[in-house]
Amino acid sequence: MKEFHSFGWYAARISPHLPKKAFQPVPSRLFGGLAYFLIALSGILAISLLDLHPIWKTLISVVLGFSFAALGFLGHEILHGTVVRTPWLRDFLGAVAFWPLCTGPKLWRKWHNVTHHAHTQDEEKDPDAWPAVEKLAKSRLLRWVYNIPFTIRAFFAFSSLAITFTLHSTRMLFYFLKDFQPRNRSIVFFQFLLPWATWIGLLFVVGFANWFFIFLLPLLIANFIVMSYISTNHRLNPLVPVNDPLANSLSVTVPKWVDVLHFNFSYHTEHHLFPSMSSKYYPLVKEHIKKMWPDRYHEMPMIQALRALWKTPRLYYQQTELIEPRQGNVYGSLGYGLDPSHIEYRKMENKKQVLTKKVAGQLKK
C-alpha cells in the first residue's frame, strides 16, 4: 500500500451509507456494564464473606478477571462519548468502568483519545507505537532487550501481557502529567491514585489470601485479555506518514458471543474510522469498508494475529518492515509482504548498513 488517506477521507465516503442513529450515543450499553458490575460485586462479596475452597475462589477470580476486562472495554467506549455525551456523566461512568484497571478518565482521554487516535503509528507522536531500529543507538535498555535470544524474548513478551496495561498506564501518567494545566494535574493524579487506594485498602480489610483472588489475580487476567486485543491493534502494521486506519490498524475476528461480551472491541479499524460512534454499529461499517476497499482492509482471527506477533520482532526498519537486529532478519508488515499464515524473513546483507558501529558491536552475533 503506497497511497495513504486520512481517517476523515474514509469516513466521508462511508457516512452517507450509514443510518442517522449510528451517530447517536447508545445509553443501553450501560445495561451490560451494570451486569458486569453486579457480577464483580457478587464475586468480591462471595470470596470475602464465604469460607470457599481455593478451587471455587480461583473460578470466581477468573470470572472477576473477565468482568474487569469487559468493564475496561465499556469504559473505553464511554470515554469516547458513544454512550452518553454529558461530560461530567461520561467521565464519572468512565471512571467507574476503568476502576478495576486503575486508569483515570482525564488521563485516558488525553493519552488515548487525543494523542493515540490523532497520531496512530507515528513513531514520534503515538505513545503506543513501537520504536524503529534507529532508537537502538539511543537506548541502552533496548540494546539489552534485543541481545536476548528471540524465542526467549517472545516468551517473556507474551507473559508480560498480564502486567503490560497496568505498567503502561502508570508510565502514561508521568509522560502526560506535564501536559495538563497546573490546576488539572492534581485531578489527574487523584483519579489515578483513588482506585489504587480503594483496592489496597481492601487488602487490609480482607487479608492477602482473599485479596489475591479478589483483585490481584483478576487484574492479571484482565491485563492479559485487554492486551491480547491491544497488542494486535497495530503491532503488525507499519509506521505511517499519514494517519490511515486501513494501513495502520488491524481488526481481529472472534466468535460472535465474545464480541457481545466485549462490546465489539475486535472491530479496531472501524473504531479508528469512527471513534465517536458506538461499537454497536461497527459490523455495518465493516461491511462498507470491505465493499469499497477490500484490498486495503486488514482482518484475521485473533489467534492467528497473536501467533504472528509471537513469530515477529517489535522493532521497525524503514517504517514498513520489522527487524530482528541481532541476526539481521527482516520481516514484512501488513500491506508490505507479511503473510500471517506463513511467516518468512529475509536476511540483511550487511547489518552495518543499518546499525551504527556502536550498536552493531554491542549486539551479540
From TrEMBL:
Report domain Fatty acid desaturase positions: 59-300
Q: Name one GO cellular component term.
A: membrane
Q: Which UniProt keywords apply?
A: Membrane, Transmembrane, Transmembrane helix
> Pfam families from the entry?
FA_desaturase
Gene Ontology terms for molecular function: oxidoreductase activity, acting on paired donors, with oxidation of a pair of donors resulting in the reduction of molecular oxygen to two molecules of water
GO BP, sorted A to Z: lipid biosynthetic process
Q: Where are the transmembrane segments?
A: 30-49, 55-76, 144-167, 187-205, 211-230
- Its protein name is Fatty acid desaturase family protein
What species is this protein from? Anoxybacteroides amylolyticum
Classification lineage: Bacteria, Bacillati, Bacillota, Bacilli, Bacillales
